[in-house]
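Anyone up for a design puzzle?
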C-alpha cells in the first residue's frame, strides 16, 4: 500500500521506511508531486500536524501522516513549543534558538523541559493522533556535536549526557519522535494484518 509521510526530510524518511517497508511504500511530499509549502498556522502541535496531514489528504487523496514537534520548557510557560523551529526568528537558526533559550533561563533554577511529538494519520476512515514525549532538563551550556536542533542543551531524564552526545539509535530508543513513531507503526502493522 502506498502512503505518504508529509515531509521531505531524508533522515526522517529513511527511519520510517526501515520500520514500515515492505508492508507500506512510504512516499515523500516530493514523490507525490507536492512542492508547495504545507499550511502550518495552528497554535498547537495537535492542530499543526492535523493541518498538514489533512492538506495532503484533501489535495492528493493519499493516506498519509504528518508530524510536528516542540520543546516545552516549564519555566517559560511551555515555550518555545509550536514555535521551536523559529524561536529566534524566521531564519530557523538552531544556534540562535539555543542562545535565546539559554538567555531566557539565565539564573532560573527550574530547568525542566520536555520534547513532544504529535503524529496525525489520516485516511478514508478519518484521522488518529499519536503522541510521544521525553522529559528532561535544559543544560547550562551546550554539550555534544551529534543530532540537531536543541539536542546539545537537552538532557533526558535518567541520563548523564545530552541528546547530542548519544548515537542516533540510542536517542531514537527514548526520544519523543521515536515513541510517537512506535505508536504509529504498531497501529499500521496491525491494520496491515
Ligand atoms: P519539526 O516539527 O520536526 O520540524 O520540529 C520543529 C523544531 O523542533 C525543529 O526545527 C527543532 O528546532 C526542534 N526539534 C524537533 N525535534 C528535535 C529533536 O529531536 N532534537 C532537537 N530539536 C528538535
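Challenge accepted. My sequence:
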Amino acid at each position: 500500500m502506498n502512503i505518504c509521510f508529509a515531509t521531505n526530510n531524508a533522515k526522517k524518511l529513511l527511519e520510517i521506511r526501515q520500520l514500515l517497508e515492505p508492508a507500506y511504500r512510504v512516499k515523500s511530499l516530493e514523490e507525490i508531486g507536492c512542492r508547495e509549502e504545507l499550511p502550518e498556522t495552528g497554535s498547537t502541535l495537535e492542530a499543526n500536524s492535523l493541518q498538514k496531514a489533512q492538506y495532503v489528504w484533501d489535495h492528493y487523496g493519499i493516506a498519509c501522516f504528518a508530524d510536528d514537534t516542540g520543546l516545552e520548557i516549564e519555566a517559560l510557560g511551555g515555550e518555545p513549543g509550536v514555535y521551536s523551529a523559529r524561536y529566534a526568528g524566521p531564519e530557523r537558526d538552531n544556534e540562535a534558538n539555543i542562545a535565546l533559550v539559554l538567555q531566557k533561563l539565565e539564573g532560573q533554577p527550574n530547568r525542566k523541559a520536555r520534547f513532544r511529538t504529535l503524529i496525525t494519520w489520516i485516511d478514508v476512515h478519518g484521522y488518529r493522533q499519536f503522541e510521544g514525549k521525553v522529559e528532561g532538563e535544559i543544560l547550562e551550556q551546550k554539550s555534544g556535536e551529534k543530532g540537531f536542533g536543541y539536542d546539545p542543551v537537552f538532557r533526558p531524564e535518567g541520563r548523564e549526557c545530552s541528546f547530542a552526545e548519544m548515537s542516533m539509535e540510542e536517542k531514537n530508543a527514548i526520544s519523543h519522535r521515536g515513541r510517537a513513531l512506535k505508536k504509529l507503526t504498531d497501529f499500521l502493522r496491525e491494520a496491515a494484518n
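A detail worth pointing out: The longest helix spans residues 176-192.
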